[in-house]
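With this grant's support, the team has encoded backbone shapes as discrete tokens. A representative record is reproduced below.
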Amino acid sequence: MTKKSIQTQLIRSDYRAPAGFDAYPTAIHHASTVLFKDVASMRSGDWKNKNAYTYGLHGTPTTFTLEARLAEIEGGNHCLLAPSGLAAIAMINLALLKSGDDVLLPENVYNPNRELARWLASDFGVTARFYDPMVGAGIADLIQPNTRLIWTEAPGSVSMEVPDMPAICAAAHARGVLVALDNTWAAGLALRGFDVGADIVMQALTKYQSGGSDVLMGAVITRDRALNDRIAASHMRLGMGVGADDAYLVLRGLETMKLRFDAHDASARKIAAWLKARPEITRVLHPAFEDCPGHAAWKRDFSGAGGLFSVLFDPRYTEQQTDRFVDALSLFGIGYSWGGTHSLAVPYRIQGMRSGWQDAGILVRFNIGLEGTEDLIADIEQALARL
């Protein structure tokens, strides 16, 4: 062979690492261009079936491995990754809804999903209606001939109501309507969405799966192949891709996810019980507590609770006072999301977010991280003194 120039050598080295290397971490495969053995291989590759690699956007061994593991955790057969939880939601909506269709969403839905639904209604001719998350089998009365999709969230990630998923799914399926579940709170650990009747399970991998508050990613998991293919077409047309480095971080986080989830859960329950006894707090919205809306459904369907819950302050405290409480916390950051090792607290103007919200008092949501439980209680106690 003709001697190659240094420039060509820089790009096309003859060296190949010896085969036989193995290690516990999943290898990180970076690729936009995927190389084929020959033209026949190129022409026979099918990005939908994932039986071959076709282009980096459609997957590498790193992302295929993450998708397979997420599907296993949730009890599904197919998984698609997206750049964020909201991107995963958008992928589902755009795959299943068109002009003239109707979608139902719970009043406690993740607010960006609400805004996306309103955008679909205002600009794309999709009717978006909101229902009481505690409606249960009564959802049947809301289903119209053009209803194509019902969103559920178990529980609502701010107000914490737990829906009766089997009842909603049974009513929907009797009318041929698909049900999508945002299962981010339970992470596929405390609840498997398909076991309660969901057709599609969406998760924000930004939370417990990564565990480091450093990754944005979402997943859409299904059991039915035809349904997966519809969503996969949306995935392709929207150009939904995730980087191999981020996929690796989530893969690394999965190995400790159950241990972390259980630790979040144990600490959060102890702190929630302590808050329930405080005179400043009128309600603790934690699904494991009997007075939380939907507790019976949680007790029947769930095996855990994680670290996220909310409280309502006594109405005698103004927003200025509760803001001062949040500002006074030293071990809690002020920020959205949950599932990371660091604790967070966020005050919400819940009356403006929810139509028909009856409870008075300022709502504050806590993400209980992995700091010492007694240290977090002491921090909350000193901040309450600032009210």
